[in-house]
# Entry
Amino acid sequence: MNLYPAHHLQRQRLRLALLCMLVMLGLWASLGAIAAHADDPPNSYVVQSGDTLWDISQQLGISVEALIAANQLQDANFLSEGQRLVIPGSGQQDQTQTNTPSTNISEDPVAITGARLNTPLEILLRRHGFTMRKLQLMESEYSPLEPPPPNLPEPFFEIAYTPEIIQGQTGVVRVTLTEAITPTARYGNFDLSVLYRDKTREGYRYEALIPTWALAKVASRKLIITAAEEQISRTFDITRGNYETQHIVLPPSKGELLEPQKTRAELERLTETWQEFDPVKLWRGSFQFPTDEEHRRTSPFGTRRSYNDGPVTSYHAGTDWSAPEGAPIKAPAPGVIALAEPLEVRGGAVIIDHGRGVFSNFWHLSEILAEPGQHVEQGDIVGLVGSTGLSTGAHLHWEIRVNGVAVDPTQWAEAYFPNLPLYSP
Ligand SMILES: [Zn+2]
# Structure
């Protein structure tokens, strides 16, 4: 029973790769030796660098004892490069015999090649200056220092993830594979883009963010991870968020903006924007709030919303501050401006692409101070607070979207994604 299949297979694969390499080296060296010494009398052998008497005996198909006797060697362990050895029975001692079978070796490289491929690993290693001890050393350099992994099928080495995610918050799944195969991860019908790859001591590490809707069903969910036709499922729980319900009454002029075709068209435009992102993580550390500290947070993320006494089908996708008209809006983290234009429902809008499917959105701006494609650093001013679009007064609305899902920005201001404490069963 093999408890450490990943390690074991990895080691086996390494050994196989090394063996292949050495066989090829040996083959190349043999052919080279034959070519270089084609003019030598076929009844002798010129010692090559790294040769041992055992190598030569195997190569020529004669015993070590016969070689020692024929060459009157004093020390069987000492051969020097370029030393010419008499091949016993080849006719050098008996000049009347010139075409013994052993001399055919140098005339038939294919025959040698065939013999070569059957040469044991140890002989090949010695021929090329490797010893078994050296090989073991090379293996140990690749051996993980971590405790043995749980029994996962190849190419999985480890799966670690957030076991509990509050509605509207973001979780993380980290998959370590022994091979560089990009895995896929999903829960329900939701595809998590697995983007980040990093070579670690254990193998190839991939990470995906798990965003959840603030209205997501409170339940156990299955996380399905696939790599090289192997599928692993893990369970995480979506737990209840502490969100209130807000009833918003809009004046008739603003109410018109809620017409379904207008809101739908705008959302489609935004969804397109959130689908194209920099695959590289552009943020460093946790995000910072986009407004000065003195401003009060008024409407938290996740509040369920009913407009003009309609049903609760949406939630507050961002966090609001009661900042006055004209107050600066600062980039919460580095990124690239993905959109900067006035929208009908959301008013003056700026979207920052932070990479890996993470976006910051600012709505209702009185002024836009950024241009699409522009790179911004944390703290750069991208616009001014206003009350344009579907807004009942000057305020700053900051929203974070992860793969299109509006998630709690406060969590992003507290944690450094994706460095969350993860659970690895
Ligand atoms: Zn808002």
